[in-house]
Amino acid sequence: MTLLHTDVAVIGAGLVGASAALALRRAGVATVLIERGLCGARASGVNFGGVRRQGRNIEQLYLAQRAHGIWARLPELIGTDAEYVRTGHLKLARSQADLDKLVAYRDKVRDFDLGLDILDRAALRRRFPALAPDIVGGSLCPEDGQANPRLVAPAFAHAAARAGALLLEDCAIAHADTQAEDFLLTAADGRQIRAGTVINAAGAWGAVVAGWFGDVLPLHVKYPTMLVTEPLTRQIGVSLGVEGGGFYARQVARGNFVMGGGYGHALPGDRSRPGPAALAELGRTAPAILPALARASIIRCWSGIEGYFADKNPVIGFSARVPRLLHAFGFSGGGFQIAPAVGETLADMALDRGRLLMADRFSPKRWTR
Amino acid sequence: MTALLRRVAPLAGPALRLTWNGQPIAAQPGDTVLTALLLAGDRLRTTLGAGAPRAGFCLMGACQDCWVHLSSGQRVRACSTLAEDGMALVDTLPGECP
Amino acid sequence: MNVPSSASAQPQMVVVGAGPAGVRAAQTLLRHGVRPVIIDEAPLPGGQIYRQSLVPRGSARQRYGFEHKRAAALHAAGAQLRGQADYRARTAVWNATPGHLDLVRDGDLDGLRYSHLLIATGATDRVLPFPGWTLPGVFSLGGAQIALKGQHCLLGPRIVFAGTGPLLYLVAYQYARAGGQVQAVLDSAPLAAQASALPALLNQPGTLAKGLYYLGWLRAHGVPVHHSANLLATHGTSRVDGVRARIGGAERDFACDALAVGHGLRAETQLADLLDCAFDFDVAQRAWLPQRDADGRSTVAGVYLAGDGAGIGGAMLAELSGERSALAMLADCGIRVDAPRLRWLARRQAALARFRQGLDRAFPLPGTDAGCDDGVMVCRCEEVRAGELRAAARQYAVDDLNRLKALTRIGMGLCQGRMCQSGAAELLADCRRIPLSAVGRMRGQAPVKPLPFAVLGKDPS
């Protein structure tokens, strides 16, 4: 029976866990990165791929701005740009009331230098003629962008491994013991990992993992529905969202449109399927926003499994009850862009060398007040 | 340019008249769009990525390599679509948007 | 009783596919007083091998050769179905969930409940990538046959046939008979393989005789037939104008205007996959196939599998397995079936299976040898080259085909892996030096074929 001793055990090699492991290794901390399946294969790998600051709760914008800087340095950090491009993100208003909300958001976050630019109907027609002419306006964040989610998290995990983290894939944890001085994690294959600190970056299963240690957190699991079209001639470069949510779309370099909206349902075995109603709704909404899609076909649809908290903020913080257990999950559909900054922050918190700004908004204790 | 297909035997009867990229071509009832186009030429489309020429492959609706457009914008899979009189077929649609 | 617990009181039996297996299955159900729903993408029954055109050209003999009587019988049975069963022509199943099928016909969506489902979705050519295989003028063997059988047209004028399998000789023969200029037949199988398969092939002396007849006729009419002939590359820039092959030890060029290629057949298993049927790796077919018992039951209650869509066996075996699976479905519903008939079917199937094993030995399926250059485009749809696949496999230590798909987009394009999965699996196994069975298979997603937005978003009427 193998027994591994380490400083930090990270549970979950999605983008949050993998970037935490990389940051820990850059600080010289012994780290084991434990993944039940293959790294980056869950929400981190199947999400929409929008690298987006605009639209976030204001308290997330510190992390988002820190992440913005990290995304620009991906080649140097992880050896690939993972197809990250700052295409701009355009959030559409389909009514005057929606446009008012976009303006209010721009005003509210003006201190964060997102560079938000409000466009009226005429400006949209001029700059983005592929959009339907009846769209009232939009808010453009020119430096938001998109990347290939299937590449990013595995690249972080492998970079962490190259930096000396022990990456354990196909390693499901069967049992977790909190002991006097440390944690003892036992894998299904009998391997054991002893660690002074545990980071729970288990994504949609974060509440399950929290439960191993007796922490109860009110995570909802949802199944975003996504689809992709065949390659089309270039219609639009910016990635798109709508005020109020429910539709997001981007055209990748090859010409396919990736888009999503609505939710599907769970299947046995930790899987999920797109929702028929969500697909039908996308079938109506997408051509209404991008008329060229009326003649396109969908070639594949899929669904992800994501964890949500009602206030749309993740938990990022130490357990109230278990010392040295650090939770980081429940990114409520917005984990992709901020994850690299969350990873660095987790390393800071584990090393007690930095604080999370507005920590109370992310605290695991925020429901017990 | 040698067409990729030729008929085993000529067919009698009035021809269907189609256009392919603006050029008139003829077909017979029962011809698929792919047959009509490859009786007249040796290419169906150019790929968006590498700009490579394609002319279909499996002829049974599996490979998805034979999609062409009607001038209305609608896409048709050439091997599984019957040629109809008056069809205006194109390999690319006009215009691109930024 | 093998009925899914979610079924409503009234059994609803559905057959997907109106080729040899589906037609015989539906006919069997009708004979026992059941009115099944039959769903087929084509306008008329027959599948690929007995494909019927709306506007038939040439004679039945020209279209189906020695099989024209079988074809006629199958077509007659199909015509009866169209009158007596709920026959949905030109209808595609784009998604399957337990107890429910999503259909599309003529731009309209529909849903269909089932309690018992027979999947008889047939097969397409198994193709391995090689330099230039995407060029205009390169087609699959099945495609070349459809041009002739379905459209009464010939690819060419000068055409080379390459690959392996009985279809190689049949199509080359049909082309040469129809006046095509067949430049060569290049069989990757060694002659010794065919010799050693003779005992098994004698299980079906009539079929063996036909095969030998095709080969003999080709030779007698001056068509060069080469064994141990491996396609190396095509020549030509905007279209094929020649091929290069390695025959024995030497490389030879053949000028041509078209190339028809195929290395056996590949079962269409997307619906079985979507329904979570368990799959097993078949060594001879070098492919993952849905598990089924001797009667055709899958591992999922209420789902049955028959014909080439469950594993390549040819048209005769498909007819038998279609009938047998229908009998199993009926028995599972408590309907009396004829035990002697079942035993007769089992014996006939066993004899055909022994013949099939002979064919597998006579025409061994090659893998992609390590000589598939980095520049070869493995994924036609997403334009992914062999070099990219190898680089990703090495960089991320990839031993799983689905992982390779996620990292490189292979199999994510319009054809959803139909054309590239065989080649990608062989390449990954070779690159990582692991057995082909170890790389697994690509998992499918709906829609099984591209679905227009215009259809998806229509308001239900």
Walk me through this protein's architecture.
The complex is a heterotrimer of chains A (369), B (98) and C (461). Chain A is α+β, with helices and mostly antiparallel strands. Chain A folds into two domains: 3-66 and 149-217 and 311-362, FAD/NAD(P)-binding domain (3-Layer(bba) Sandwich); 89-142 and 224-303, D-Amino Acid Oxidase, subunit A, domain 2 (D-Amino Acid Oxidase, Chain A, domain 2, 2-Layer Sandwich). Chain A has helices at residues 15-26, 43-46, 61-72, 74-78, 96-108, 121-127, 149-162, 206-212, 276-289, 335-350, and strands spanning 3-11, 31-34, 50-51, 89-93, 117-120, 137-141, 145-146, 166-168, 173-178, 183-187, 192-200, 220-222, 224-229, 239-242, 248-251, 257-263, 265-267, 271-273, 297-303, 306-308, 315-318, 325-329. In chain A, strands 1, 2, 8, 9, 10, 11, 21 and 22 form an eight-stranded mixed sheet that branches. Chain A has an eight-stranded mixed sheet with strand order 5-6-4-14-15-16-13-19. The mean pLDDT of chain A is 96. Chain B is mainly beta. Chain B has a single domain, classed as 2Fe-2S iron-sulphur cluster binding domain, sarcosine oxidase, alpha subunit, N-terminal domain (Ubiquitin-like (UB roll), Roll), CATH 3.10.20. Chain B is 8% helix and 28% strand. Chain B is built from one helix and eight strands, in the order E-E-E-H-E-E-E-E-E. Chain B has one helix at 33-40, and strands at 5-7, 16-20, 23-27, 45-46, 53-54, 67-70, 75-77, 88-90. In chain B, the strands form two sheets. Chain B has a five-stranded mixed sheet, covered by helices on one side. In chain B, strands 4-5 form a two-stranded antiparallel sheet. In chain B, strand 6 (67-70) and strand 7 form a beta hairpin. Chain C is α/β, with parallel strands linked by helices. Chain C folds into three domains: 13-124 and 266-335, FAD/NAD(P)-binding domain (3-Layer(bba) Sandwich), CATH 3.50.50.60; 127-263, 3-Layer(bba) Sandwich (FAD/NAD(P)-binding domain), CATH 3.50.50; 377-439, BFD-like [2Fe-2S]-binding domain (Arc Repressor Mutant, subunit A). Chain C contains 14 helices and 24 strands. In chain C, the strands form seven sheets. Chain C has a five-stranded parallel sheet. A five-stranded parallel sheet of chain C has the order 9-17-11-12-13. In chain C, helix 1 packs parallel to helix 9. Chain C starts with 12 loop residues before the first strand and ends in a 5-residue tail after the last helix. At the B-C interface, strand 1 and strand 5 of B face strand 9, helix 4 and strand 10 of C.
